[in-house]
């Protein structure tokens, strides 16, 4: 398509106003029918917007109209916000109209306190929402990253599940589709479409990176502009100087790209005095219920203009907004009674009263799983016994198995096999297993089996060359680390090695951390650091960063090094004694593996002293 003078001006303004160097490599979806001009404008611009749009000739062909709107949107963007500065305005843009202390979250529609925003500077413990880039941040550069028109507050978990997946069609609430695409929800699909269209107009960002233009045009028509979108547009206009034209009038997208006929908010016939609320929803009915969900439906409300949405409340608290007359309410508790109401809303912001409450009780699960069968001993060493059994069944879902040793509870595991370490040599034990479902119903214990550990024949081959060489128990936060050293003249394969700890005053080794996959060359060390550590010396020396409990210890938690399930080296004392609280313990040269803690083998340093970490 041959570019006209307006297109050239758009290209010039992109280079001038945007810091990205790659905009000219992006190919936007062009307008349709570029050579067909309008004889006269089909729009009557509202008085409040005449001054803003006075440079645009709405009788132009679609290509020329696109160019003029692009030029306007770029030129009016006078205040280019920094990424941090965006928060000065984002709370106002996304503010809940019914509760100024809260914001409305994209996708879920929840109203949450502004104090729950997740950021490094937020002193509050509860941090439940953060910033969502509707056009993914990973696909943007320069000024586009902090443009308020594509930023929304969103639930952290929903934001993380969406990632940078493209948008696809769906129905009902937001959902991840096939683990590689995302539906924003009936209530938010139009919002998303108009934000994506803005990005194409303002930054030349292509549609096919994030979805399909035809789908966005469909959403733009099906989900009309809401008062909340209008609020956002006005706040962002005050902050940046430019507007989203597709919020001001969704029909502009139809004019430029075609597709489904969207609402024309500039038809000169809009009734700005509409204050009539829709009728109250009636006929609430339970269509389906399960352990954790209730699906309901109701009769459509009526309105003097049009009903555009329904608000669902559960036990008096806002749950979600839908545009259909059905809703699936999820994440409920089994055997619990819920009170559900529905209210209708129109595009002018008029809301009906709440419906008569529908009282519904989810299905209770009192059925225990089947008893585990075929429990058997599958292996042993001088300090461990391996077990396996057949999976249980349940009317819901089996979440794990409780293991008992000599009639005493040992631990819950999620697998159908487990190796119990830290046992005494040449000792016979009795084992049983019970299944537990996701609602904590527990089966009877299985038939018991007996297993005997092997006789103690001394340290396993190769054990004498690997030791625990350093232990840091940070006095603040998660600044905790362990170092393993090979002081022999040969390399050592760590596939059969693992670390375990005894928590507080316990007696049993637990929280096994396998070292499989690592090899220590002669004289080398392996440093394992808690993933949440923030002390630079720990981070610089780390070979492994993990959230495993073996590096979430206190100064009274012994640490053991195991080879084939046999304890070969140990740091600390059983019984809960504070042997290394808030300190760094470093092994003295010449030390050898020892299954008894000998304090004289260790030098004590401040926990902030990390100079020796990473070398032995």
TrEMBL record:
Example of a GO MF term: endonuclease activity
Taxonomic superkingdom: Bacteria
Keywords, in A-Z order: Endonuclease, Hydrolase, Nuclease, Signal
Domain LTD residue range list: 457-595
Keyword Kinase: no
Region (Disordered): 262-281
Pfam families xref list: Endonuclease_1, fn3, LTD
InterPro entries for the chain: Endonuclease-I, FN3_dom, FN3_sf, His-Me_finger_sf, Ig-like_fold, Lamin_tail_dom
Span of the signal peptide: 1-22
Domain Fibronectin type-III span(s) in chain numbering: 280-365, 371-456
Family in the record: Belongs to the EndA/NucM nuclease family.
Protein name from the UniProt record: Endonuclease
């Amino acid at each position: 398509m041959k570019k006209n003078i307006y297109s050239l001006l758009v290209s010039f303004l992109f280079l001038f106003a945007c810091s990205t160097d790659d905009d000219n490599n992006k190919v936007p979806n062009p307008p349709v029918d570029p050579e067909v001009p309008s004889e006269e404008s089909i729009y009557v611009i509202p008085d409040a917007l005449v001054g803003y749009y006075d440079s645009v000739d709405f009788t132009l062909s679609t290509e020329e109209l696109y160019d003029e709107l692009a030029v306007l949107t770029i030129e009016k963007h006078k205040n280019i916000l920094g990424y941090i500065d965006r928060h000065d305005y984002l709370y106002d843009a996304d503010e809940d109209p019914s509760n100024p202390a809260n914001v409305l979250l994209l996708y879920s529609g929840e109203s949450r306190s502004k104090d729950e925003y997740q950021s490094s500077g937020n002193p509050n413990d509860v941090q439940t929402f953060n910033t969502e880039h509707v056009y993914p941040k990973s696909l943007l550069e320069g000024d586009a990253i902090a443009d308020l028109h594509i930023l929304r507050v969103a639930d952290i978990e929903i934001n993380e599940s969406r990632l940078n997946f493209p948008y696809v069609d769906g129905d009902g609430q937001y959902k991840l589709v096939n683990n590689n695409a995302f539906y924003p929800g009936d209530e938010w699909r139009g919002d998303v479409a108009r934000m994506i269209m803005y990005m194409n107009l303002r930054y030349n960002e292509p549609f096919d990176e994030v979805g399909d233009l035809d789908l966005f045009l469909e959403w733009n028509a099906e989900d009309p502009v809401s008062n909340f979108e209008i609020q956002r547009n006005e706040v962002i206009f005050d902050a940046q100087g430019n507007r989203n034209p597709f919020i001001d009038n969704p029909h502009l997208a139809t004019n430029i790209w075609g597709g489904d006929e969207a609402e024309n908010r500039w038809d000169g016939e809009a009734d700005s005095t509409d204050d009539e609320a829709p009728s109250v929803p009636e006929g609430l009915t339970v269509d389906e219920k399960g352990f954790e969900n209730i699906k309901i439906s109701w009769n459509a409300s009526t309105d003097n203009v049009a009903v555009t949405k329904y608000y669902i409340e559960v036990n008096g608290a806002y749950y979600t907004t839908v545009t259909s007359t059905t809703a699936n309410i999820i994440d409920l508790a089994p055997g619990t009674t819920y009170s559900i109401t529905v209210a209708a809303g129109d595009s002018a912001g008029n809301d009906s009263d709440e419906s008569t409450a529908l009282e519904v009780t989810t299905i209770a699960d009192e059925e225990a799983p089947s008893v585990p069968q075929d429990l058997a001993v599958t292996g042993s060493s001088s300090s461990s016994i391996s077990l396996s059994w057949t999976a249980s069944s349940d009317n819901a879902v089996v979440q794990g198995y409780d293991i008992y040793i000599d009639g005493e509870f040992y631990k819950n595991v999620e697998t159908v096999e487990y190796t119990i370490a830290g046992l005494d040599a040449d000792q016979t034990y009795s084992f049983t297993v019970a299944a537990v479902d996701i609602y904590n119903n527990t089966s009877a214990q299985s038939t018991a089996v007996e297993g005997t550990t092997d006789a103690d024949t001394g340290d396993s081959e190769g054990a004498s060359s690997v030791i625990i060489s350093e232990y840091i128990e940070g006095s603040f936060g998660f600044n905790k680390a362990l170092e393993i050293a090979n002081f022999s003249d040969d390399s050592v394969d760590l596939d059969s090695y693992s670390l375990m700890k005894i928590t507080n005053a316990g007696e049993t080794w637990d929280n096994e951390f396998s070292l499989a996959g690592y090899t220590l060359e002669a004289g080398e060390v392996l440093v394992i650091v808690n993933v949440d550590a923030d002390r630079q010396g720990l981070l610089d020396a780390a070979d492994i960063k993990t959230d495993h409990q073996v590096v979430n210890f206190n100064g009274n938690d012994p640490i053991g090094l195991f080879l084939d399930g046999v304890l070969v080296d140990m740091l600390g004392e059983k019984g809960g004694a504070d042997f290394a609280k808030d300190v760094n313990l470093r092994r003295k040269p010449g030390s050898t593996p020892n299954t008894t803690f000998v304090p004289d083998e260790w030098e004590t340093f401040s926990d902030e002293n990390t100079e020796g970490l990473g070398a032995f």
